[in-house]
Amino acid sequence: MPTMRIVQLMIVAALILPCFNNLLRAQPVVSIVGKETLDLGAVPFGVQERDVAITNTGNSTLIIVSIDSGAAAAHIDRREIAPGDTAMLHVSLDVEPRRLWAVVAVETNDPKRRFVNIRLTARIFAPVSVEELGSDGFDRVGQVSRRTVRLANETKEPLTLVPEPDSTYCSNGSVAVDMRSPTMIYPKEGTLVTLEYVPGHVGPGHCIVWFTVREFATSPVRIFIAYRATGWPNAR
Hints:
Elements: H1 2-25, E1 30-33, E2 37-43, E3 46-56, E4 62-68, E5 73-76, E6 80-81, E7 86-95, E8 101-108, E9 115-124, E10 128-135, E11 145-153, E12 159-170, E13 174-177, E14 183-185, E15 190-198, E16 203-213, E17 216-229
């Protein structure tokens, strides 16, 4: 009789133990559909939005504990993901010259991969390229100096370049542009623009001038010139 009892216990244990082991082994597994580095490509200034699919390939519920979006913005459609299911993480990046990348850190309850870092990268799409052609040869305090630049249309459609009289900056003196009215630039063609600046004191300086591209309002054209002013003509 004791022997029969032992056999019964062994049979029960043999049936229960695999289930118990499965419970012990049950765990979520986070998986990103696609690459974890999300290249936004060449984009204009402004907010760029994308969706990232997060799938639970494990055998227990995956929990999104927290999302740290850093310089970006992010939200997910649900925080608990059942085995085999997918949730969508919506990310956005406000692209500007000093903000071309960001990292979104997703914290989960995956014991083998607590954090997933999704990196966003972008390049500025420039519908108009800027090429400096030359200057008049000297930058003297109190005298007008000139720089000529070529603005070229890099798209396949005509573009309208609009001067912005109030969108100028000069760290040493003042700057003005010879363009007074909107100018159309045809594809793969360009227009010449002359910047006239007057250094205010001896030493280094720089000026910045902005133009608006009517067809790409979020991608202004930026012209930057640097110089070193002297108190003597034809001197550097």
